[in-house]
Design brief:
By secondary structure, this protein is an alpha+beta fold. The chain is built from five helices and eight strands, in the order αβββααβαβαβββ. The protein is about 30% helix and about 25% strand. Strands 3-2-1-4-5-7-6-8 form an eight-stranded mixed sheet. A hairpin with a 4-residue loop joins β6 and β7. α3 packs across α5. The longest helix has 14 residues.
Length: about 180
């Protein structure tokens, strides 16, 4: 006959061992799909779709979001870094809002970037030219809220531009700055 303490310890040990003895054909649900909602402020074009599901990125969605984030000046586009999308998804998820990110700048061609440099902007080595950055804001959330959420995640670059009305997010090394 087991004493109460022995029963509890034995039961706990059995619970710890049970998962190791589980059948291999038991269904394990896939990780949660990742959806993004983006709006290009230049023309109102939107992207609202799942870009990652069942452990993989969805090629058609990546093409669609790359098109939305294209250089609006030249029409050029490049493959957007999926890690940037994951960063945006995490920020949007953390802020818990159905509102779309309003993207003011995504991919930037070398031609557009060179023009900005000639105008005196400090953009010479920009992650935008690699398809790894987006400048954005979010209705219903302050730029400060976006900045704090992104900085808390510690998974990319976070530039805070309150005078210009956007937050810069990129999939480069973790760092923060303000202009």
């Amino acid at each position: 006959m087991l004493h109460r303490r022995q029963f509890i310890l034995t039961s706990a040990a059995m619970l710890l061992v049970a998962p190791a003895q589980a059948r291999s054909d038991v269904f394990v649900p896939p990780r949660k799909p990742r959806r993004l909602h983006l709006l290009a402020t230049a023309d109102g074009e939107t992207f609202r779709a799942t870009y990652w599901a069942d452990g993989r990125y969805i090629p058609e969605a990546l093409v669609e979001v790359s098109n939305l984030l294209r250089d609006r000046n030249t029409g050029e586009m490049c493959d957007v870094d999926p890690q940037l999308l994951d960063f945006l998804w995490q920020v949007q998820h953390r802020l818990d809002t159905p509102a779309p990110f309003h993207v003011t700048s995504g991919y930037r061609s070398e031609k557009t970037n060179a023009r900005l440099v000639r105008r005196g902007r400090a953009v010479s080595r920009s992650y935008h030219t690699l398809g790894r950055a987006a400048d954005l804001w979010l209705p219903g959330r302050s730029l400060e809220q976006i900045r704090r959420a992104a900085e808390h995640l510690d998974c990319g670059g976070v530039g805070y531009y309150p005078k210009s009305g956007f937050v810069h997010l990129d999939s480069g090394p973790s760092r923060c700055w303000q202009s």
